[in-house]
Specification:
Keywords: ATP-binding, Nucleotide-binding, Transport. One of its GO terms (molecular function) is ATP binding. It comes from Amycolatopsis saalfeldensis. This is NitT/TauT family transport system ATP-binding protein. With 287 residues, this protein is an alpha/beta fold. It has 2 domains: 3-253, Rossmann fold, CATH 3.40.50.300; 255-287. 42% of the residues lie in helices and 22% in strands. The chain contains 10 helices and 10 strands. It has a 6-stranded mixed sheet, sandwiched between helices. A 4-stranded antiparallel sheet has the order 2-1-4-5, covered by helices on one side. Helix 6 links the parallel strand 7 (158-162) and strand 8 (190-195). The chain starts with a strand and ends with a helix. The structure holds adenosine-5'-diphosphate and magnesium ion (MG). Residues 14-15, 21, 23, 41, 43-49, 214 line the site of adenosine-5'-diphosphate.
């Protein structure tokens, strides 16, 4: 297998001086070609920052990103991104087919080739009949399928997905998860997907990278030994799935005893702060 993505010593800090906030701290990992790698981490830990830096949308404070050996500096041509918010990522004034064709305009394809490639991408996500409709005529789940089709139409070397199924209902989410695994296997796409959902990371991934709380560090890099062909019911019931999701949960939240200790410490801090505040208020009132 060849290395598709190499992230090396990547850090990102927002702001400067007192306002500085380190969102990503010294991350290094690689993703092999054809792999579906999931990154799971708590909200606010720096996942979107990491993806934006990998996609060349944000220059990192330090460290490097390489895609098939080429240093990323600006958005690479053969990289596609799918965001959580499908309603803002599709153009409402273009039909579904035109939306999917849109990014192909900058390539070397003829008009007929662009049309054919867009049609085949829509077909891959089970939307061959809706090319003539407008995005707002479709359900949220279908709109997100259009976003996936648009990303796949350019046959990217790397597909980056930032919580792509976080805004759809649970049933649609399951359908989209299965769709992604199916299309990814068919097309051999390399995928880096970020989620805050532990079960989703294990269900989807060939591998799960677990991030710490902010600033994001890698706390574990776990291979997922589940069979390639997965099923929402039997896979989620299997002993391997249950064991792995437990392991990821412990890495994210600590053992129940650790979590309780952290809660108690937080409560003590809060009540100490409250006492101080009360003392200060009384002091002010008596003076
Ligand atoms: N443009 C920005 N300017 C300043 N701070 C930011 C900016 N974007 C994100 N942050 C902060 O960086 C941290 C990580 O954010 P983000 O990467 O969006 O996390 P996640 O995607 O894991 O929820 C958060 O504390 C967030 O408030
Ligand atoms: Mg995010």
């Amino acid at each position: 297998m060849s290395t598709m993505l190499e992230v090396s010593g990547l850090s990102h800090r927002y702001g400067t001086g007192d306002q500085a906030h380190t969102a990503v701290n010294e991350l290094s990992f690689t993703v092999e070609a054809g792999q579906l790698a999931c990154i799971v981490g708590p909200s606010g830990c720096g996942k979107s920052t990491l993806l934006r830096a990998i996609a060349g949308l944000l220059p990192p404070t330090s460290g490097t990103v390489s895609l098939h050996g080429d240093r990323v500096d600006g958005v690479p041509d053969d990289l596609a991104v799918v965001f959580q918010d499908y309603s803002r990522s599709l153009f409402p004034w273009l039909t579904v087919a035109k939306n999917v064709e849109f990014p192909l305009r900058w390539g070397k394809l003829s008009k007929a080739e662009r049309r054919a490639q867009a049609a085949s991408a829509l077909d891959a996500v089970g939307l061959s009949g809706v090319g003539g409709k407008f995005p707002w005529q479709l359900s949220g789940g279908m709109q997100q399928r259009v976003s996936i089709a648009r990303a796949l139409a350019s046959r990217p070397a790397l597909l980056i997905m930032d919580e792509p199924f976080a805004s759809v209902d649970a049933q649609t989410r399951f359908e989209l998860e299965d769709l992604l695994r199916r299309v990814q296997a068919q097309q051999g796409t390399t995928v880096l997907l970020v989620t805050h959902d532990i079960d989703e990371s294990v269900y989807l991934g060939d591998r799960v990278l677990v991030l710490s709380k902010s600033p994001a560090r890698i706390v574990a890099d776990l291979p997922v030994g589940l069979p390639a062909s997965r099923d929402q019911i039997t896979t989620r019931e299997s002993a391997e799935f249950v064991a792995l999701r437990g392991e990821v949960a412990r890495l994210l939240h600590g053992s129940p005893a650790q979590a309780a200790a952290a809660d108690a410490a937080e409560w003590e801090l809060a009540s100490a702060a409250e006492k101080t505040e009360k003392a200060v208020t009384e002091d002010m009132q008596s003076s």
